[in-house]
Amino acid sequence: MNRVVLADLGYVVPELILLGMALVLILFARRIRESQAAAIGTVAAAVAAALAAMSGSSAEAQSAFAGMIVVDGYSRFFTVLIAAALALATLLSTQDSDHEAVPRGEYHSLLLLAAVGMMIAVSTPDLLTLYLGLELMTVCSYILVGITRKRQASIEGAIKYFLVASFASAILLYGISLTYGITGATDFTAIASALSEHSLGSNPLLVVAIVLVVCGLAFKVAAVPFHAWAPDAYQGASAPVAAFLAAASKAAGLAALGRVVLAAFGSQAMVLSVILWGLAALSLLAGSIVSMAQTDMKRLLAYSSIAHAGYALLGLLAGTPEGISATMTYAFLYVFMTLGAFGVVVALGERGETLDGYQGLAAQRPAIAGVFLVFLLSLSGFPPTAGFMAKFTVILSAVRTGHVLLAVLAVVCSVISAFVYMRVAVAMFMKEPQQPAPARFPMAVSAALAIAVVVTLMGGVLPGLLLPWAVSP
Amino acid sequence: MSEYIGLLVISFLSAGIVGLMIFLGSTLGKKDSTPVKLSPFEAGMDPFSLPKGRLAVKFYLTAILFILFDVELVFLYPWAVVYRTLGVLGLVEMGVFLGILMVGFIYAWDNGALEWK
After folding, report:
1. Of A4, A6, A26, which is closest to B107 when you measure between CB atoms?
2. Each residue of B50-66: pLDDT tens digit?
3. Dist CA A349 CA A41 (whole Å)
4. Do B89 and A5 touch (CB under 8 A)?
C-alpha cells in the first residue's frame, strides 16, 4: 500500500496557499469587514498559487496521497486557469453597489475555498475525491449566490441552485456507486483496466453508470437539459459571483468531465458519444435560441454560457487527445472572455444589469463600450478575437472525428448567437443614451478588464501560445 | 457465516431483555394514567407537530457548533485507536484537522455565536 508521507504536501502547494489565505481571512473576518484587505490578500494568494502551479515544471504525471491527487500538465493547466479566474473575479468584487453590503472576509474566503475545491476536482484521478472537490466548490457557490441576502432574487437563486445541484450530486454519487459496483474501483486507471480486462463493456448496468456520472457532471457545466439552475443563479448572484461561477466552475466541471471521459470510460466510446452528442446539440440550440429572448444582461450571459458549454463539449465528444486539447483551449479562452463580459456588467453597476442600460453607452463611455464590443465579438466567435480560435479548434476536432452534422449545427448556432450579441452592440453604438452616464468604477475593475481584453485579443492573434500547455492527461 | 453468530445471539438477548422489561413494567407497575403521562416523550418537545412555528435562529447556531465538536470526536476516536501505527504523521494530520476546526470555532466565537442574547 502506498503510504501517505509529508512530502506529498509539496504536490498541493497551490491548494494549500489558497486554503491558508482562506483560514487567515476567516480568523480576521470581523476586523476586515469593511476594508479591501481581504481582496488584496485573495489576489496575492491567487497569484502565488498560479506561480506555484507553473513552477512544478516536470512533464511527467506524479501521483500523491496514495493516488488521490495527480499532478500533470492537465491539472497544472486548469489550476493556473482557476487561479487566474479567482484573481480576476476578486478584482471585480471591489466594485460594490451599496445595497449589496457583503462581509468582505467571509466573501473572499468562500471564493478561495471554492477555488480550492475546483483545483482538487481538476487534479484527482479518483471518483470520490472528484466528488469531494466538486462538493466543496458547489457548497461555497450556494453561499456566494445567496450572500447578498438583502435582495430577494439572491435568496431565490441560491435556493434554486441548492435544490438542483444537490439533486445533481445525488445523481453523480449514484453513478459513482454503480461504477464501483461493476468495476470494484473508484480510481480512473483501475476502472479503465477493469473494463478492458473483464470485458464488462456489454454489461447493461455500465451504460446506466456512465450516463449517471456524465449527467451529474453535466450539471456542473450547465449543459442542457441540466442547465435550469444557471440563469436564476447568475441573475440572483452579484455580478462578480456570477462571473466566477460562469467562468471558473464551468472550467472545473469541463476539466473533471474531460478526465473522466478520457481516463475512466475511454473504452466506452459508443455510449459516451451518444450522451455527449445529445448534451452538446441541446446546449448549442437551447443556449443560442433562448438567449434571444433575454432582457436581463446576466441572464443573457447565462444562456450564452450554456451555449458555450455545448461548444466545449464538442472537443470531449471527439475523445481524442487533440479533442481534449481543443476543449482545454476553449475553456481557457472562454474563462477570460466571460469574466471580461461580466466585468463590464460589474463596471456599469446598476445600469449594466438590463439590456436597456446599454443604449447609447458608446456616446457616454466610448472606452468601456469598445471593451465590451471586443468581448461580444469574441463570445460570438468573430476573428481576430479568441472566441474565433476557440470555436474553430473545437469544430475542427468535431469534423475530424466525423461529427459533421454537429459541426454544422455549431456553426448555425454561432450565427444565431451573433445576432444576440450584436443586438447589444447596436444598442451601445447606434442608440441615443436614455440614462445618465454610469459612475466611475475602481482601478481594480479596470485592471481586470484590461487583463481580460489582452488575453482575448492575444488568444485570437497568437493562438499558438497556448498550445504547448493544453496537453491532455 | 460463523462470525455472525455473536450478532444473532446479541439481537435475541436484547430483544428478550426489552420484552422482559416491557412485560414486567406492564404487569407489576402502577397504572394511574393521566394525558400527560400517556403522551410520547422526546426531550421535552412535541414529537408530532406541523413545521409551521418559528424557531429562534440561535438554536440553529448552537446545533451547528455542536456538529463542529461532534465531527471532531467522530474522527478522534478511530485516530486514537491507531495512533501508534500512524506515528508523527498522524499527529501532524490530526493537528491540521483540529486547527482548521478551531478556526471555524474561533470565527463563531468572535462573531458572537456563543452569546445567548
Report:
1. A26
2. 777 777 888 888 888 88
3. 24
4. yes
